[in-house]
From TrEMBL:
S-adenosyl-L-methionine binds at residues 77, 107-108, 195. Residues 100-184 form the Methyltransferase domain. It comes from the Bacteria. Keywords: Metal-binding, Methyltransferase, S-adenosyl-L-methionine, Transferase, Zinc. It holds the Pfam family Methyltransf_25. Zn(2+) binds at residues 34, 38. The keyword Cell membrane does not apply. It comes from Brachybacterium saurashtrense. One of its GO terms (molecular function) is methyltransferase activity. GO terms for biological process: methylation. The lineage of its organism: Bacteria, Bacillati, Actinomycetota, Actinomycetes, Micrococcales. This is Methyltransferase domain-containing protein. The keyword Zinc applies.
Length: 285
């Protein structure tokens, strides 16, 4: 008898598809295999990688995933987690056993918050970083984790999810629409222009939010989605040196700043930093 797949992955298994040929997958010991013989290992850490080429086009490295886990453990982003959970609960109201797909899930922090708020839901966190998937696979007892490339066709059946979440992650609107049920919703969270302004002023080389982000997002989503609701969140968080270092290190800015700028002293003076984001729900057209 094969070992069972992780309990949180079981509701998703009939919906997963081979990234090479789009056929269904079945379990054989610690492997998922399609009828054409393409196979994908179930990692001992509880996730499955469905990367067609075996490697991601881009991914957080081990240090970035660990920095993200460390920073989120401080609770500095707890209000954002609550906002995401509020909007998800609203989107999933009255659905008997909804499935939530979290694209670019990182450590599963926000997906875990949604599953706590919606006790009947099942989640699947998607990322390309192995370390992030290890964290995400244990973010919640109903959270599964899988690796695939957001810029390719998703290895998932049509109409598989009730909610697609995209929190500070790359977007693929045609695939979001394809894998959502007809009445499904998309939840998008992105930084506002003044997000982390004080930190960007103190750390040269940090990536700045695109001033045309809202315009570009609207244009990308318009063929597939209609906006339903938008909520803004703006607050100040006080970060010590370690918190600032982890916050920089967990973002794409880590690839652009001088390594000496990341070596912020843990004993440095606290800094008040603006957290400014916009979250919106979108319905399939």
């Amino acid at each position: 008898m094969p070992r069972p797949v992780p309990a949180a992955l079981a509701p998703w298994l009939p919906l997963l598809r081979c990234p090479h040929c789009a056929a269904g997958l079945s379990q054989h010991e610690r492997v998922l295999r399609c009828p054409q013989g393409h196979s994908f290992d179930l990692a001992r850490a509880g996730y499955v990688s469905l990367l067609a080429g075996g490697t991601a086009t881009s991914a957080d490295d081990d240090a970035m995933a660990r920095a993200r886990d460390s920073f989120l453990a401080t609770g500095a982003y707890a209000p954002l987690r609550s906002l995401v959970a509020d909007l998800a609960a609203e989107a999933l109201a009255a659905r008997p056993s909804p499935r939530v797909l979290d694209i670019g899930c990182g450590t599963g922090y926000h997906l875990g918050g949604v599953l706590e708020r919606v006790p009947r839901a099942w989640g699947l966190g998607v990322d390309t970083a192995a370390r992030a998937l290890r964290f995400a696979a244990r973010a919640h007892e109903r959270a599964a984790a899988a690796g695939w490339d957001v810029f390719s066709r998703f290895p998932l059946a049509d109409a598989a999810a009730d909610l697609v979440m995209d929190v500070f992650a790359p977007r693929n609107p045609p695939e979001f629409a394809r894998v959502l049920r007809p009445e499904g919703l998309l939840l998008v969270v992105r930084p506002a222009e003044d997000h982390l302004a004080e930190l960007r002023a103190s750390v040269p080389g940090m990536v700045r939010p695109d001033p045309r982000k809202e315009e570009r997002l609207a244009a990308a989503l318009a063929p597939h989605f209609a906006a339903e609701e938008t909520r803004d969140l703006r607050l100040q968080v006080t970060l010590d040196g370690a918190g600032r270092r982890d916050l920089v290190a967990m973002t794409p800015s880590a690839r652009h700043v001088d390594p000496r700028a990341l070596a912020l002293s843990d004993a440095g003076a606290a800094l008040s930093v603006t957290v400014s984001v916009r979250a919106s729900l979108h319905r399939r057209r």
